[in-house]
Amino acid sequence: MTHSCFSYLHCSPLLRSILNMSAAIDIQDLSVTYAAGRGSVPALQNLTMSIPTGQVFGFIGPNGAGKTTAMHVLLGFIEATSGTASIFGTDVRHSIARQRIGYLAEHPNTYRFLTGEELLRAAGQLFCIPRRPLEARIASLLEQLDLVHAAKRRVGTYSRGMLQRICIAEALINDPDLVILDEPTSGLDPIGRGLIRDIISDLRTRGKTVFFSSHELSEVELVCDGLAILNQGRLVAQGPTATLVPTGEPLERFFMRTIADGDAPSASDSSSGGLS
User: Fold this and answer.
1) Domains of the chain from N-terminus onward
2) What is the DSSP string of 177-206?
3) Which secondary-structure segment (H or E) carries 170?
4) Interval 72-114: pLDDT, tens
5) How do 101-104 and 82-87 pair as beta strands?
6) Is 83 helix (H, G, I), strand (E, B) or coil?
7) Separation between Cα atoms, residue 142 and residue 149, nearest integer Å
8) Among 129, 142, 238, 252, which is least packed, fewest CB within 10 Å?
């Protein structure tokens, strides 16, 4: 198999265990600045955090806080102005780092002339997954996301919720070890949101890492092991959910208070969850 067709999905268990030794995500002093006329706008300012393998981690903040920018750096879509970011110990500037990622964009769009089944097959072929394992993976994902009945329909005929679900299936086609989800429950009804929670729970059970952003804080509260709150490009709170959010206080109230204060004590220094 050539380097361009490296498939982490088919690595030996020994190689997978070696590759799993580092943190899933490690970000150090990351800053991103965008040009704006004759000046510049800071989108991220000295962001530092480390997310252990196997956690479901919520990345939350107001609109414009810099969440999507941070995700785009991890995905190699944009380059940081300064600082470093790595995935499983590999610098995100190297394309090999992205072989182990599955990604759902905030506003997913895809090839609407393909059927759901064809879309997943095309995505799997990009990862050079052999035919038989690929067909089994497609069948499993269609069932998990309640899309078996629509497998042979063109994606262009899907409802908003169905489009979201097929794009999530596309993000999971390579059985990624790190799943990055930007607003994964957007446009989904309660049944659809329940399906996504079940998938996230299954990923955690299998030792995968889920890094996701959402404005639906009730969903974040239900599934996350750890949290980071970003505001105006700066990290203002982070830590294990159980110790960061005061007992009995809803996450939404804690979030609003933290953003209003512009700062909050971090649980990372005293926790054993590996966050920093």
Assistant:
1) 3-261 (3.40.50.300)
2) SEEEEESTTTT--HHHHHHHHHHHHHHHHT
3) helix 160-172
4) 999 999 999 999 999 999 999 888 877 889 998 887 778 889 9
5) unpaired
6) strand
7) 9
8) 252
